[in-house]
Amino acid sequence: MATKKKQVARELLFGDLWEFDPAPETAPAGIADRYGLFIGGEFVAPKSKKWFDSISPRDDAKLSEIALAGQADVDAAYAAAAKAFPTWSKLPGAERGKYLYRLARLLQDRAREFAVAETFDGGKPIREARDFDVPMAAAHFFYHAGWADKLEYAAPGRDLRALGVVGQVIPWNFPLLMLAWKLAPALALGNTVVLKPAETTSITALKFAELIRDAGLPPGVVNIVTGAGETGAAVVRHKTAAKIAFTGSTSVGKWIQRELAGTGKRLTLELGGKGANIIFEDAAIDQAVEGIINGIFFNQGHVCCAGSRLLVQESIEAEVLRKLKLRMKSLRTGDPLDKNTDIGAINSKQQWERITELVDVGASEGAEIHQPACELPKKGFYFPPTLLSGVTQSHRVVKEEIFGPVLSILTFRTPDEAVEKANNTAFGLSAGVWTDKGSKYLAVASQLKAGVVWGNSFNKFDPTSPFGGFKESGFGREGGRQGLLEYGELD
User: Fold this and answer.
1) I want to staple 164 with a disulfide (CB 3.0 to 4.6 A). Which of 181, 242, 314, 433 is the partner?
2) Catalytic entry in 118, 304, 472, 478
3) 317 has catalytic annotation
4) What CATH class is the domain 34-271+473-490?
């Protein structure tokens, strides 16, 4: 009996008949011309008397002047935090929780303004800043406000107390959300904080300082110093710090670990990743394709847990690639302030150059490059969504974190081979498994060396769920009860 040939769904072609009209976000961002350092509850000029420009990747235009903190400024920030610690740590948990609730509500009140500022400053699409970054940041403050008066339940039978002054260094890919991830649990437990945002995305952290002031937090509980690597090094090395929390590159994380060795300081590191998105032949292909798109192109691929390696079973490789390329044709790359935009601007010229370099290396090593036709803005830093097929485990684009909208595609035949390839990396932050069999998901997920493994989904986050990695992706957890305990001492 002749086998019935599977019909391939035809592509609907509309040409340019259904082109989207521009839908720019017009709400004001409320960005000041100049921002000082936030120390002791007020904005102050840097003792270094130095400033640097904050540039929008959207159009390479200057947004604001930011204070450059020197050693004396970092000393002043730690002194203010140390002065505030005794009173803040002894404040009843319910009272600290009220401050956190107040911060969450103030952020909600100014959500649209913060979303626009985040888009201007970092280049991410306004849809993502509006619908994910700002609401999730507020959710972390709400969640940890609830913990503030229930700390005896975080570790039953043990006494949990604050560590002291905490130094925190956050990255440029999720400036406001990373601030919330780190500030909320530290404050809930009674710690005081010296925080340094990334030099390319300092604006929303400094705008958040306005909320801290409006919420009436005691002076010195939160201090924000801005600058580049030297400022971050001063925050990390300072003798007053009882703990350092860092999110960023693996190379800087290794340096921090060496610096803190033997000092007795607590440390959590959330570093790079090279997440594997594993698609089995029994998966719902259309659903998986959406998960692939979300896993790698969300926030222009500027996500440490991005699914930047696609492992697809050989029997469905052709179908997955065909549907993936078709789906990519509908992605809109361009002005991040346009509500129709799916992929915005690359965060900085330096990052754009690294992405370009690694894609060129992939091509020179024999990778087949696929990029959908798209017209990129002439100003700013933009890179089209990219597929790299025909690659192997030895290719640089498979081994190194690109941190951009670039997906490397490999194949496998058996679950064991999928696990082996997924684990064949220096990183261990995230993974995804797509299958219609729960037993297969559990069997594969239990063998993957990754801090979080999503099932039939990707990039799902919640304040109640701990997040973190293994191997060169760091250690420690953020979020949930586990993340709260990272900021306390158990007696």
Assistant:
1) 242
2) 304
3) no
4) alpha beta
